[in-house]
């Protein structure tokens, strides 16, 4: 599927992985709505993207994804601005073991809301023409990081939810492909949260072990994550897929055994 002329909404799109994905989409001819809580970062992002890709191709919508009404408005505004919606990237995420309830709210609850809103705007069930959703999980879902138990739980949850919804989409003939992306460590501002007790909470005492884990597994560049993301967005054969991206194996897929009776 070509993304030329298609419309995408990317949560957490103002920096890091989200920003790299926004740029990849714009480069391929999509129009993109950047939905992010950070007004100043979003303003800088918007002016830089306007300079590179032209002013009519991208919008910044300031929105806290945990505010259900604001998130609904962000979807609506995207459709009003660009006339349609084809691609939803639920990417916004935080690492906060101290305020772990907020981590569940941002990383899982809001991602579920974003998926349901995406379906309202794209599913054949709602009289729409179909589309694609990618939910951002993490390799933490496979390595159950002892430095981030709640973060890890949210990323497991993202995979379970995504795979169940992908099956629902087939059963319900939604015409929407739903996939998950699991990067290992990526060089973004999120990595700085390892230094901060306000984020790590009582697990700050494992900080050095955490850093050893980053040294061991390496740190990826956001551009590679955007490359994997574009495959999930454009490959029509992918639904319920769980893409992993690691330094050792690059872009690859997790395989599941078929369910036995
Ligand atoms: N950086 C890494 O090592 C890895 C990151 N991930 C996941 O990738 C996704 C993106 O992470 P990064 O780009 O690394 O993080 P980042 O911190 O660089 O960027 C996250 C973006 O999300 C926005 N955001 C945070 N809370 C929000 C909220 N309540 N409402 C709206 N926007 C909000 C931030 O303002 C920021 O622009 C997250 O889901 C993260 O869990 C997964 C694996 C590894
Ligand atoms: C302070 C950092 C905050 C948030 C980011 C968070 O820690 C996160 O999501 C990071 C996850 C990193 C996981 C890294 C693991 C990498 C593992 C691989 O190299 C293992 C090798 C192969 C995988 C096996 C397979 O079948 O693919």
TrEMBL record:
List each coiled-coil range. Answer: none
Q: What is its EC number?
A: 1.1.1.141, 1.1.1.232
SMART domains in the record: PKS_KR
Origin organism of this chain?
A: Oryzias latipes (Japanese rice fish)
Signal peptide positions are none
Q: PROSITE patterns attached here?
A: ADH_SHORT
> Could you tell me which residue ranges the Ketoreductase domain spans?
6-177
UniProt-recorded name of the protein = 15-hydroxyprostaglandin dehydrogenase [NAD(+)]
Job description of the protein: Catalyzes the NAD-dependent dehydrogenation (oxidation) of a broad array of hydroxylated polyunsaturated fatty acids (mainly eicosanoids and docosanoids, including prostaglandins, lipoxins and resolvins), yielding their corresponding keto (oxo) metabolites. Decreases the levels of the pro-proliferative prostaglandins such as prostaglandin E2 (whose activity is increased in cancer because of an increase in the expression of cyclooxygenase 2) and generates oxo-fatty acid products that can profoundly influence cell function by abrogating pro-inflammatory cytokine expression.
Q: Name one GO biological process term.
A: prostaglandin metabolic process
Similarity-based family: Belongs to the short-chain dehydrogenases/reductases (SDR) family.
Xref: SUPFAM superfamilies: NAD(P)-binding Rossmann-fold domains (SSF51735)
GO CC terms, sorted: cytoplasm
**Known Pfam families for this protein?**
adh_short
Sorted keywords for this record are: Fatty acid metabolism, Lipid metabolism, Oxidoreductase, Prostaglandin metabolism
Can you state which reaction this protein catalyses? resolvin D2 + NAD(+) = 16-oxoresolvin D2 + NADH + H(+); resolvin D1 + NAD(+) = 17-oxoresolvin D1 + NADH + H(+); (11R)-hydroxy-(5Z,8Z,12E,14Z)-eicosatetraenoate + NAD(+) = 11-oxo-(5Z,8Z,12E,14Z)-eicosatetraenoate + NADH + H(+); resolvin D2 + NAD(+) = 7-oxoresolvin D2 + NADH + H(+)
Q: Which gene encodes it?
A: hpgd
Q: Which Gene3D superfamilies match?
A: NAD(P)-binding Rossmann-like Domain (3.40.50.720)
Q: Which GO terms describe its molecular function?
A: 15-hydroxyicosatetraenoate dehydrogenase activity; 15-hydroxyprostaglandin dehydrogenase (NAD+) activity; oxidoreductase activity, acting on the CH-OH group of donors, NAD or NADP as acceptor
């Amino acid at each position: 599927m070509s993304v030329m002329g298609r419309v995408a909404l990317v949560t957490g799109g103002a920096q890091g992985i989200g920003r790299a994905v926004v740029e990849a989409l714009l480069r391929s001819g999509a129009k993109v709505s950047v939905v992010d809580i950070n007004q100043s970062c979003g303003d800088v992002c918007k002016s830089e993207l306007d300079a590179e890709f032209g002013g009519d191709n991208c919008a910044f919508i300031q929105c806290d994804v945990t505010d259900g009404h604001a998130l609904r408005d962000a979807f609506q505004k995207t459709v009003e601005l660009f006339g349609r919606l084809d691609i939803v990237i639920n990417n916004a995420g935080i690492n906060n073991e101290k305020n772990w309830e907020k981590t569940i709210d941002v990383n899982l609850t809001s991602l579920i809301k974003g998926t349901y809103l995406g379906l309202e705007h794209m599913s054949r069930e709602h009289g729409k023409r179909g589309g694609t959703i990618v939910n951002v999980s993490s390799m933490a879902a496979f390595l159950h990081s002892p430095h981030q138990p709640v973060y890890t739980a949210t990323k497991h949850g993202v995979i379970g939810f995504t795979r169940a919804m992908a099956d629902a989409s087939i059963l319900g003939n939604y015409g929407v492909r739903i996939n998950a992306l699991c990067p290992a460590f990526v060089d973004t501002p999120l990595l700085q949260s390892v230094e901060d007790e306000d984020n790590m909470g009582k697990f700050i005492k494992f900080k050095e072990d955490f850093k050893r884990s980053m040294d061991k597994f390496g740190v990826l560049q956001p551009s590679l994550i955007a490359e994997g993301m574009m495959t999930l967005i454009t490959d029509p054969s992918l639904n319920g897929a769980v893409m992993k991206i690691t330094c050792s194996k690059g872009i690859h897929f997790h395989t599941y055994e078929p369910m036995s009776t």
